[in-house]
């Protein structure tokens, strides 16, 4: 568990919902599919940078840890684009803890 002083409990309803949601799902629950898009990465980062993201039972990082790898000027047209960018960034930077993710992200031939 992180010793970071979070603005709210990473396992409370504002965080990972009592450890019911992890990683990618916690990023996405902070946006509204209808009202928040298009969404600029810098705006999301500014609002949520210090919020906790539980990756697994033992690891909590901040939104900033992932968003430092996404250019602030990147704009997500919709929630699908947001999902894809967060997932790719998490995989590329060692934050994706789900085993078997490659089976879902490789191009099948």
Describe this structure in words.
It holds the Pfam family DUF5785. It comes from Halobaculum marinum. Residues 1-20 have a biased composition (Basic and acidic residues). This is DUF5785 family protein. This protein has five helices and four strands. With 109 residues, it is of the alpha+beta class. The strands form two sheets. The protein has a two-stranded antiparallel ribbon. A two-stranded antiparallel ribbon has the order 2-3. The longest helix has 14 residues, at 79-92. It is globular, with a radius of gyration of 14 Å. The N and C termini lie far apart (41 Å).
Radius of gyration: 14 Å
Strand content is: 5-15%
Distance between the termini: 41 Å
Count of domains:
1
**Care to count the β-strands?**
4
Biased composition (Basic and acidic residues): 1-20
InterPro entries: DUF5785 (IPR043903)
Region (Disordered): 1-21
Pfam families: DUF5785 (PF19098)
């Amino acid at each position: 568990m992180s010793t970071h002083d979070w603005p709210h409990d990473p396992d409370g309803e504002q965080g990972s919902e009592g450890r019911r949601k992890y990683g990618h799902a916690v990023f996405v629950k902070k946006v509204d599919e209808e009202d928040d898009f298009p969404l600029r990465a810098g705006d999301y980062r500014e609002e949520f940078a210090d919020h906790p993201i539980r990756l697994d039972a033992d690891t909590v990082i901040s939104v900033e840890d992932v968003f430092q790898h996404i250019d602030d000027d990147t704009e997500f047209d919709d929630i699908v684009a947001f999902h894809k960018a967060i997932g790719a960034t998490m995989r590329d930077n060692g934050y994706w803890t789900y085993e078997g993710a490659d089976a879902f992200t490789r191009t099948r031939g």
